[in-house]
Amino acid sequence: MEEERLSIYRVSRSIKRKENSLYNALRSIYEDSIFIGEISQLWPQLPLLANLRCGFWYSPNFHSTCYFKSTDGHTNNCSFNTSRLNFHVALLAGQKGGCVIVDSTRRGKRFPDSMSRTIPIWTCVLNRAIFNYLNRIGERNSGFDSDSNIYNRNGENTSHISHDWDCSLHLPLWVSKTEKAVIEDRLEEWTKELEASGADIASLVFSLKKPLRPLWISQKTVIWLNEVPDCDSWDFTPIILVSASSSTGTLQIRTTSEFSWKYIPGAGDDEESWARGLSPKFFWNHAYELINSGPDLCNQKVATIVEKDRVYRAHRGQNAPQVTVKLSKLASTDHHSEQEPPLYSDISNISNMNSTQEDCIISWLGSTNIAVGKAEFGTNVPKVDCILNCHLELAFACLPNAIAHLHLPIVSSKLDRFSLLNNLPSAFNFAKLNLSKGKSLLVCCHDGEDISICVCLAILTSLFNDEGAFDDGKSFNETCITKWEMRRRLVFICKYAVNARPSRGNLKQVFSFLSGGRVSSVS
After folding, report:
1. SS3 123
2. Nearest C-alpha neighbor of 157 from the set 185, 134, 179, 132
3. Cα 423 from Cα 396, distance rounded (Å)
4. For residue range 303-327, what is the model confidence (pLDDT) as tens digits?
5. pLDDT tens digits for range 29-40
6. Helix 287-315 vs helix 22-42: angle between axes, to the nearest 10 degrees?
7. Is the peptide bond before 53 cis (omega within 30 degrees of 0)?
8. What pLDDT sits at residue 519?
9. Could you give phi then psi for residue 96, rounded to 5 degrees?
10. pLDDT higher than 90, residue 115
């Protein structure tokens, strides 16, 4: 009896694995991308943004990316995170008259929590901060002549818009009134946190002519093509939230003239578990080849694509780890990836980005003489005097003689909770030595989004004052560092490095370094 029960369990697991195969995932993404293309054509003047990381799979034509986490919008546990302000989204929406954000979710929901609550809260808090800013300017100028009005980037007077600026919370209908009331009670608190974080609210005032407001579109939304409104006709700046996948709860077996396959809602989610090293960029470069290969040949096609790119990188001395795939214990034909895909593509790989190569691969942090970026481009960046390389494996074999270089192989906090903390003293000394001589510094890691951001945060907090000027640690020694002060510095970094996504574990290590007396011990 026990053997029979175990046999049923094995069979059910094997069926589930086959249903969630690589081909099913890629085919589902491809079918959903057709819907995304149709929606983007309704408002072609609006930029298309991918909400990382799931949303990045659903189109080859993204203008940019953003990072709104569903965990900030979970039911009855909502928050506003100043570490993920996404100001570049609001500024882009102000410039273009709105934007379209793409994301997806697993079966059972029409929209992910990032779209149901996180982004609506974000738009409301930003609107309230702009309203408060305009009111403060108005009160300050009330005793002066009208010459001291505020003008936006189009030269239009914005001093009058505070009176009818919409600061209300706009949530979708499926969020209950009780939950909406709970969120509204916290809006004032979140607005004050944003204002105290040092965020550049003035830039939003100069960019936005109308308040931000979310709109929701899914595959069940009915749109009359002859009645699509023009964005300029709305009295708000639209943030159009598009959920890519179908939300049907029934099992969908779809059939073409050649293949049958199972549709997977939200197939782009959790790519480490199914993508086998394939990235969105390489998927769209070979989309028709992969889709037409069918379920039987898809795995081999992907393996060939990934291996060709690995060899290409290896020949050029770039990071080229082998993607390990092991046999399943349940079925010899089932595979899964053991490690994070090495081919993950960031905003610099999107064909529509209208910026120079240097602007794509690194971000200069204001006038601090510090830049942050990906390690694989470290030797190709001009105007950099020294490099602090935090990549685990990629050590630069050949560097110009004029460049000072320090390699610190730092791993993720998930692999080692103290790796960053143990290496920060060396990073601090290297940065202090070179920045004090007026040299420029590039801090890089494997993706330019987490470890390098946290190293920059430690350097900026310990060696620079509130104005972003190098003072050799004078202001740091005169103040008691708090988590709030560290977060204010992180907001400053995110203003320039819009792809920054520091992990909680690494941020904790930075705070331990700054508050535990380690800075003074290495000075």
Report:
1. helix
2. 134
3. 18
4. 999 999 888 877 766 666 666 554 3
5. 999 999 999 999
6. 110
7. yes
8. 66
9. -100, -5
10. yes
> Do the beta carbons of residue 46 and residue 62 sit within 8 Å?
no
**Angle (deg, nearest 10), helices 451-463 and 504-515:** 20
Residue whose tokens read 């919008």: 73
For residues 509 and 483, the answer to whether their CB atoms sit within 8 Å is: no
Confidence of residue 364 (pLDDT cuts 50, 70, 90): very high
**Mean pLDDT, residues 211-223 taken together:** 93
Beta bridge partners of 441: 370, 386
| Cβ–Cβ < 8 Å for 203, 91 | yes
Q: Residue 154 has what pLDDT?
A: 52
Angle (nearest 5°) at CA 351 between 350 and 353: 75
Shortest CA distance to 128 belongs to which of 192, 49, 48, 181?
192
4: which 2 tokens? 């029979």
Spatial separation of the C-alpha atoms in residues 478 and 27, rounded to whole Å? 58
Of 325, 522, 330, 313, which Cα lies nearest the Cα of 431? 522
Taking the complete model, does pTM exceed 0.90, yes or no? no
278 in Cβ contact with 345 (< 8 Å)? no
The per-residue pLDDT for 414 is: 86
Decide if pLDDT at 413 tops 60: yes
Q: Are 25 and 264 in contact (CB under 8 A)?
A: yes
Helices then strands, each counted (H, E), the chain: 16, 14
3-state SS, residue 145: coil
